Amino acid sequence: MTVQPQDRMSSFESVTFFFRQAAERLKLPDGITEMLQWPWRELKVVVPLRRDNGSVEVLHGFRVQHNGARGPYKGGVRFHPNADLDEVRALAALMTWKTAVIDVPFGGAKGAVQCSPGLLSQRELNQLTRTYTQSIAHLLGVTRDIAAPDVGTNAQTMAWMMDAYGRIEGYSPAIVTGKPVELGGSLGREAATGRGVAYGLAEWARLTGYHLPGKRVAIQGSGNVGSWAAWSLRELDCTIVATSDVRGGTFNARGLSVGGLLDHKGTAGAVADFPGGEAITNDELLALDCDILIPAAIENVITVDNVDRIKASVVVEAANHPVSPAADAILFERGATVIPDLLINAGGVVVSYFEWAQNIQQYRWELDRVNDELRKFMNRAVSDIHLRSQHGGLSLRGAAYECAVERVARAVELRGFV
Ligand code: GLU
Known about the structure:
7-stranded mixed β-sheet, Rossmann fold
């Protein structure tokens, strides 16, 4: 197969590629297209860290605010060794389109610190989170820019961010979402992205007549998103045949016990040697004979190099940007359905919106209310995008970008920015 040029694209170029396709279809004027393509503000900071052994390490951090036309900037903070400015830009842009397509009143942002959180102690993580927060605090604000967890960060990280910000500006729980429930976090926020994936997939299945029970599902990644997606899909009677973490995966054609696996991961720290399955690599997991493949870890795992080996007819992007544009085009031509990141993994930011609203109102919702409202947001967006894709002969990704770009362009026009 000839490698298409777009597979050489960086992460930001890839997201821009999808955006520009939508902007062209919508016939946006060139100036508006440029304005929506580029991040509105970018900050690069140095994060010096005193290691437990006394040495000083200098880490690099970023906060990119991509677009604020529809509301305060919103997006997670990632701790990962490969997080660079290009990736943070891509993820910030994706948040702009995600918040628009799922219709929560936010713009898009993302932050990161280049580090390996698994190799740092709790004291080191606490200190680096505080230093990073202090360095970007002038950009943050309850109605300006609100952070959340992402790859390599969690509720504890958000508690430290909230505390570091509070020391400068005073007690402000709504400055972060995804914080511990004891500090004003929302019930159901931790599970929200994985649960939202299951709600969205169930709605897509209902609309298209796809029979979900008994379908064989392979999930790459067993972090927060992957493990909650596994739980929620088991509740829909899917058979989880494989899952993995960075060290490798486990496979059982008859179905893995999700509870047993998560217990094992909790005690042994890795899924590969789970006694209820056979060890496989992450590459083998992607190529498994299964019905539904769910990349739920990092970006760019399905590219022209392995797309020919993908056997699943439904790919559900629980991770952000797991499929390259060239691989996406090949899957579309092949007739596979890709349910795209900006739509299907939006459950996290939906419940972030609920958490922010609860904090501002100083009122707590019960879990059933959170989940019912999450289901409504997912169902509405999935059905809108399904209809748009049918009418326009577009992929679900094409339809989702088109809807998102149209909404953000309209907000820019209504506000009279230019
Ligand atoms: N990090 C999550 C995402 O990529 C959640 C963002 C948020 O809740 O602000 O969607």
